[in-house]
Amino acid sequence: MKAETEIKENPYLCYQCAKCSAGCPVAEKMEILPHQIMHYLSIGMEDRVLKANTIWMCAGCFTCSVRCPNDIDITSVMDDLRKKSIQQGISCPVPDVLTFHNAFIKAFAGRGRVHELRMMTEFNLRTGNPFHNIKLAPKMLLKKRLHVLPPKSLKGFKSWMKKIWKH
Ligand code: SF4
Ligand code: SF4
User: Fold this and answer.
1) Are 79 and 87 a contacting pair, CB within 8 Å?
2) What percent of the chain has pLDDT over 70?
3) Which of 43, 69, 87 marks a domain boundary?
4) How far apart are CA 102 and CA 108, in angstroms?
5) Under the phi-then-psi rule, with left for phi > 0, alpha for psi from -120 to 50, and beta for the rest, what region is 5?
6) What average pLDDT score do residues 66-84 get?
7) What is the pLDDT of residue 23?
8) Which of 63, 87, 111 is the last residue in one of the domains?
9) Residues 108 and 146 both lie in one domain
10) Is the CB of residue 24 less than 8 Å from the CB of residue 34?
11) Whose CA is nearest to atom 5 of ligand 1?
């Protein structure tokens, strides 16, 4: 059985300056702000953060990691917390985000590149809203932002993935 993900960053290095939260573009949608996540982790309240919507609202933009004066990679903390939450079977407070996440991973894992049309179709079907954003499709196709055919696989991607999954 695969070992549970560990949080690789050290929460005790955080001195609660809140620069991470001040720069986060989705902070207003989060139940617990990024600097509060670090605080909860430092006092052993991981259970609380694993249930918060914060880890699912995080867009992985790295702004917090870049702004942190202590070089704490908060983006990777969010990643690790998401993995832990899935491993522990905690129900996701924003199920559509998890559905999108799974559709993206599935689309990416096959080729190393995402076929957006297929990914969005899968997302729409799984969320029971098959025509969501359908009006945008013709415009995006015309501007070559959406492609009917899937992209070519990245060379060596599958063997690289096999190596990654071993660890
Ligand atoms: S990586 Fe996540 S937590 Fe950090 S600034 Fe971006 S959205 Fe906010
Ligand atoms: S920016 Fe860094 S040191 Fe400041 S609160 Fe966020 S994690 Fe802690």
Assistant:
1) no
2) 97
3) 87
4) 10
5) beta
6) 97
7) 97
8) 87
9) yes
10) yes
11) 24
